[in-house]
Amino acid sequence: MIRDTFDRVHNYLRISLTDRCNMRCFYCMPNEHYDFSPFSKLMQGDEIEKLAKIFVTLGVNKIRLTGGEPLIRKDAADIILRLSKLPVKLTLTTNGSRVYEYIEVFKQAHINSLNISLDTLQADKFNHITRRNDFALVRENIQLLLKENFHVKVNVVVMKEFNDDEINDFIEWTRDTPIHVRFIEFMPFNGNLWTSNKVITWKQMMERIEQKYKVHRLQDEKHDTAKKYNIEGHAGTFAFITTMSTPFCGDCNRMRLTADGKMKNCLFSNSETDLLTALRNGEDIVPLIYKSVYHKAEKLGGQFEPNFENLNPEDIANRSMITIGG
User: Fold this and answer.
1) Which helix (H) or strand (E) holds 254?
2) What b/e string do you get for 277-309 counting C-beta neighbours within 10 Å, with b at 16 or more?
């Protein structure tokens, strides 16, 4: 097992397949004309499989594939099917634009749960956020997944005076649709124009919801990053990911591999461990993995405290979100 100095066992690996995306969400990508990594610098399919197998021998039992947008990678289906042969729970986060092409791949890989990023239920606002005109396509693909009996979580990054007026619209969506909405507090990354006054906390969101609905708390599972709730009689649920106001670092079990093969022991870590170069050089990467996790900070990468009102994003040394992996 992989433990850190706070006795947290790490058995969950998030692997970014690419830093490319077919959308341009402003909170994820610094600008429209982004310099993506050349393919040769990224982990190749067989290298992803080799690295994943090593992590599995060390106790990893859950793998999430992320991007960029993982499904735009040409060999995404091959990678998914390779990893599906490992003794892990395999899942995926996507912007939802191409899932219709992969339904049978998901079934063959025994993927039954997906996270879809969707920050608005308004087409014009979707176009503004993503700089793409794919709102109808994403909504249709969500319905397709539900029709095919997939468990669908919808990730909503909530920003004050931008989409916070839609919180109850998302709650209403759960009335007749077995969708699982996850409201995410806006987090700072390189180039995403984060400011503290754009953050709306989960408690502030909850206040708005409780003005209209009677809310029931659900039981969280071990290592859950989200506080889960439902409304009596609703087919779906909702939850809050409270990174900024109420971090959940005490029970963290997650590690990350960026598309270019760098290991991050925390989303906000300012240090990385180059596993891909070591693998290509024939080195033993196990000690590198243990060392990375051993040096994991107690919370938030050791870079800031939950009193985000006083946080200067320029003081945080990190990548843009798209180069880390969602």
Assistant:
1) strand 254-257
2) ebbeeeeebeebbeebbeebbebbbebbeeebe
The residues that bridge with 15 in the sheet, in sequence order, are 65, 257
Domains present along the chain, CATH in parentheses: 12-324 (3.20.20.70)
State the amino acid at position 116 in one-letter form: I
- List residues bridging with 226 in a β-sheet: 241
With a cut of 80, say whether residue 323 has pLDDT above it.
no
Find the helix or strand (DSSP H, E) in which 116 lies. strand 113-117
pTM of this prediction? Answer: 0.94
Which residues fall within 8 angstroms of residue 38, CB to CB, at 6 or more apart?
none
pLDDT per residue over 222-272, tens digit each?
888 899 999 999 999 999 999 989 888 889 999 999 999 999 999 888 889
How crowded is residue 102: how many other Cβ atoms within 10 Å of its Cβ?
21
Find the DSSP H helices in the chain: 45-57, 76-83, 103-108, 123-130, 135-147, 167-176, 202-210, 275-280, 286-294, 321-324
pLDDT tens, position by position, 151-177: 999 999 999 999 999 999 999 999 999
Distance of alpha carbon 64 from alpha carbon 295, whole angstroms? 23
User: Tell me, what's the pLDDT at 82?
Assistant: 98
- What angle do helix axes 135-147 and 123-130 make, rounded to 10 degrees? 110
Residue 153 sits at φ, ψ, to 5 deg, of -105, 135
What is the average pLDDT value for the chain, to the nearest integer? 92
Q: Are 97 and 138 in contact (CB under 8 A)?
A: yes
303 DSSP assignment? T
Is 191's pLDDT higher than 70?
no
